[in-house]
Each structure stands twice: as C-alpha cells, then as structure tokens.
Automatic annotation (TrEMBL):
Catalyzes the reversible phosphatidyl group transfer from one phosphatidylglycerol molecule to another to form cardiolipin (CL) (diphosphatidylglycerol) and glycerol. The active site is at H241, K243, D248, H418, K420, D425. InterPro entries: Cardiolipin_synth_Firmi, Cardiolipin_synthase, PLD-like_dom, PLipase_D/transphosphatidylase. Belongs to the phospholipase D family. Cardiolipin synthase subfamily. It is a multi-pass membrane protein. It is an enzyme of class 2 (transferase). It catalyses: 2 a 1,2-diacyl-sn-glycero-3-phospho-(1'-sn-glycerol) = a cardiolipin + glycerol. One of its GO terms (biological process) is cardiolipin biosynthetic process. PROSITE patterns: PLD. One of its GO terms (molecular function) is cardiolipin synthase activity. It comes from Halobacillus halophilus (strain ATCC 35676 / DSM 2266 / JCM 20832 / KCTC 3685 / LMG 17431 / NBRC 102448 / NCIMB 2269) (Sporosarcina halophila). Keywords: Cell membrane, Lipid biosynthesis, Lipid metabolism, Membrane, Phospholipid biosynthesis, Phospholipid metabolism, Repeat, Transferase, Transmembrane, Transmembrane helix. Its EC number is 2.7.8.-. This is Cardiolipin synthase.
Length: 500
C-alpha cells in the first residue's frame, strides 16, 4: 500500500509539474496543479523532518526534493532512504526471527573464558544483532585468491551427495562460471537438490541460455530483486552482495570472491585479482545455512527445515571461536558499521584493514582517528588500481585526514585488491562481503565471518604482510603536494559517497 502511494505521488508530481509550467491549460487548472504539487512536496518534507535524521542529511534531502522537481523525489524514494522507516522488509524481518528462534543452539562453550573482555563484548554484540552465537566447534581455512578458492569449491561440489545451496551477487557464465554450471547441472541430473540464488543486478551478465539450461537440468533458481519488479516495489537499490555455498551440511564457503573469470585474474584491463575466501567446517555452517534459507523463503515462499540439512552433531572443540553475521536492510540498519566501530574502538594494539572501497561514515572515521591518537597501530590497505572512477577518488579523498593522524595507508599495486578484512590486535578478525562504504553498511545484504583466536587469523596476518610487500606506502608530504586536478577529482567523487 505504501509502495503504491509512492508511485501515485511520483505520477502526480510529474503531471502537476508539467501542467503548471509547460502546458497550455487554462490558468485555473494550472493554479490547481501547482497547489497539488506544493501540498505533496510540503507533506513529504514535513514527514522527512519528523524522522529526526541527522541535520545535514535532512537538509540534503530537503534541498534535493525542493530544488530538483520530481527527479529529487524519485531519487529519494529509490535510493533506499525510505528503508529508514523499515516498512520495505517488515515481512522478511518477521520471517527471519521465526527461523532464528527455532534453529540456533546457544549452549555456552568453555572456550568463551579464553576470550578477553573486549572480544566477549564484540561477540555479544554480534549475537544481539544477528541471533547467531559464537561457535568453538567450527574450523575455518583461509583460501587465497581464485587459484586456491575455485579448485576447492569445484572439488567439494563434485563430491556432493545430498544437496548444494548457493547464493551469489555475481554469477557469470564465462569459463569458470560455465565449469561450475556444468557441475551443478550434473548433480541436479543425478537427483541432488541444487538451489541457487543470484542477484539480478550483479548477475545481469549471465545469459538466458545458461539459466534455461540449469533449470532444464533440475537446478532450482531464485532471482534476488528483479530489476523490473524492483523498480515498482522500491527494492531496486537493495541487492544481495552475499557469497555463500553450503554442501551436504558439512562444508561451506564464504568470502570476497564472486563467480567470474575476473576473480582468476582474467580481466583484460585489471589483470591480477587479490581476494580472500574461507572454507568452513563444523557448527557455523548452520548459521550460513540459516541465512541462505531465510533468503530462499523470502524469494520463493518456501519454508526449509534447518535440521533436515544441517542436523546437530557431536561437537568437536577447535581452537578459537567463529561467529557469523548476516546484515542487511531487513535487520537493524547500520549494524555492520556499528560492529566495525566497536572493533576499532576496543582495539588495544593494532587495527589492520584491507578493503577495495573505503568510504567510511563519520563514526568509523572518528574511531580510526581516536585509535591512532591512543597509540594503536592503524593500517589501511586499498587498491591503487580500481574498477571504478568514483570509488577510487572518493577513497583517496580521505587520505589526508588519516595521514595527519598517523595512520599508515598502503596502495596495493600488483593488481586489483578486492578482499574485505579487518584484523584487531592480531587475535580477532572480520572477513566477508561487506566493504567500508555506504552501500555495504546500509543497503546491501551482506555476510561476514568473525574469527576469535583461530589459527586462520594468523594466516590473514601473514597474507596481509605479504600484501604490504606488493603495496606502495603513501607518503604524507608527497600526498599533500598532489596537484589541484587530482584534488578536484577527489572532491567531486566524494560528493557521491552516499551512492557508492
């Protein structure tokens, strides 16, 4: 009902704006049209003010709606701003809770006492936000780049005997994509349950032939927020950025790599692609399976039983804890940003961040600056080679502020760096799909794994050190002397930060 009202408002705004300024209708009709236009605009602005957003955001949207007739309102509606009120995903949020209430084992492990008070605080925050408790009965292995990730994925898919569940932002039918498609088709023809969720925008390059061939073979597919229907439901701007594979309930994969040849360094312009993925065994698979089932239920209106796919088994204790977080507009808005803030704010010795897109909000910028001021070693790694003009220069627009605070900045030069990692005090880490930008922190459906004192944290540290050898450390003085044209591009790109 609310969505239909917004569409009606847009049509009324367009019609009345045209009648007022461009039509040759009699004067009384034009005055009436102008009055209707003004009433709608004033009503929208009044409601916007009542939402009590931050003053600068409220003023920004008021200016857009007032000074960009019709277009400003359309951008407001479809930019994801209405999600602040929470109505777009109300039904999905209720469905999420139903799954979480029946699926999560919250028995406390003895491993909990091995964590510091800061680590326990972060873990409790994650559980409060996502519903998933920490697991000390899970094992994760770090997979570096596509050369390690795709062979591991293909090997496990070929070994599948019961089911395969996949959810991806980008799924192409290029060389590596077709190899995986062939495995999925083969398994479906063997009688296995194969379910695939793909994002309509991220996987727009997947051909119709590939989709039809998978469906014909028996692969059950779900498209996340169709471009066409997404426009009319105002959900076009909300994408699933998740990368999840669960096989037979005993192996899962999650991390930064989508399915496409570029993730194997085959992009003609970008070349080498630096990324990180995780292979998960044990109890945390149930969390990843739950996230997939929640999204499947949302898209297909089909309820799946968690114990059917990942029954509770005897727990084997591993070193360290693993905790999964599924974030998105169906949950508390900005939860991933708050967790990143908490990790930085509670750091005692070091914070190492690697992300391809770094457009942080004010709170994260403040946390990083305060950490550096306290003597915490803060390192930021971003790619020098970028896959987009605006993200590249918007990221660089923050360099001066951080360099002045003593934060070390490294630009990865070997190729494009796409991994999303935060390592705190050399003991805990976050790795997954969420970037440090507005889209990941507010609009996308993301999934991250948080690692506490696992052996995989050391693997991430070793890889980070090796990545620094392939990076250029930004010199504060040299950066300060960059040309006016470069500064102009940075400032221009920064204006689009809320859209990146």
């Amino acid at each position: 009902m609310k969505q239909m009202r917004q569409i009606v408002f847009i049509l009324l705004l367009g019609i009345t704006f045209y009648l007022t300024l461009f039509s040759e209708q009699p004067f009384p009709i034009r005055v009436s049209a102008a009055a209707v236009y003004i009433v709608i605009i004033v009503s929208v602005c009044y409601v916007l003010i009542l939402e009590n957003r931050s003053p600068h955001k409220t003023l920004l949207w008021l200016y857009s709606i007032l000074f960009f007739p019709v277009v400003g309102y359309v951008f407001f509606v479809y930019s994801g701003q209405l999600q602040v009120r929470g109505h777009l995903f109300e039904s999905k949020r209720e469905d999420n809770q139903r799954y979480l209430d029946s699926s999560i084992d919250k028995n406390t492990s003895s491993g909990w006492n091995q964590l510091t008070s800061e680590e326990q605080f972060i873990s409790n925050r994650i559980e409060a936000e996502s519903g998933f408790p920490i697991s000390f009965s899970s094992e994760v292995s770090v997979l570096k780049d596509g050369d390690e990730t795709f062979p591991a994925i293909k090997e496990r898919l070929r070994e599948a005997t019961e089911y395969i569940h996949m959810e991806y932002y980008t799924f192409r039918d290029d060389q590596i994509g077709q190899e995986i498609i062939d495995i999925l088709k083969e398994k479906a023809e063997q009688g296995l349950e194969v379910k695939v969720i793909f994002d309509a925008a991220g996987s727009i390059g997947m051909s119709g032939n590939a989709k039809r061939s998978m469906k014909k073979a028996g692969v059950d597919m779900a498209c996340f927020h169709s471009i066409t229907s997404g426009f009319f439901t105002q959900k076009i701007n909300f994408r699933t950025h998740r990368k999840i594979i669960v096989v037979d309930g005993d192996t899962a994969f999650v991390g930064g790599l989508n399915i496409g040849d570029e993730y194997l360094g085959r992009h003609p312009k970008i070349g080498f692609w630096r990324d990180t993925h995780l292979k998960v065994k044990g109890e945390s698979i149930r969390s990843l399976q739950t996230i997939f089932m929640i999204d499947w239920s949302y898209l297909k209106n089909e309820t799946l039983g968690l114990d059917t796919y990942t029954p509770v088994q005897n727990k084997e204790e591993y070193s360290g804890g693993v905790q999964i977080l599924g974030s998105g507009p169906d949950a508390n808005q900005g939860m991933i940003a708050e967790l990143y803030f908490d990790m930085i704010a509670t750091a005692k010795h070091s914070v190492w961040i690697a992300t391809p897109y770094f457009v942080p909000d004010k709170d994260i910028r403040t946390a990083l600056s305060m950490a550096a001021k306290k003597g915490v070693e803060v390192k930021l790694m971003v790619p020098e080679i970028s896959d987009g003009y605006l993200p590249k220069y918007a990221t660089r627009s923050y360099f001066a502020q951080f360099l002045n605070k003593g934060i070390e900045i490294y630009q990865y030069q070997k190729g494009f760096m796409h991994q999303k990692i935060m390592i705190v005090d050399g003991r805990s880490a976050s790795i997954g799909t969420a970037n440090v930008d507005f889209r990941s922190l507010n609009l996308n459906f993301e999934v991250n794994a948080f690692l506490f004192r696992t052996s995989s944290v050391q693997s991430l540290i070793d890889n980070y050190k090796h990545d620094m050898e392939n990076s250029h450390k930004v010199d504060a003085e040299a950066f300060q002397n960059r040309g006016i044209w470069v500064r102009t591009k940075e400032s221009f790109a920064r204006l689009f930060s809320p859209a990146l």
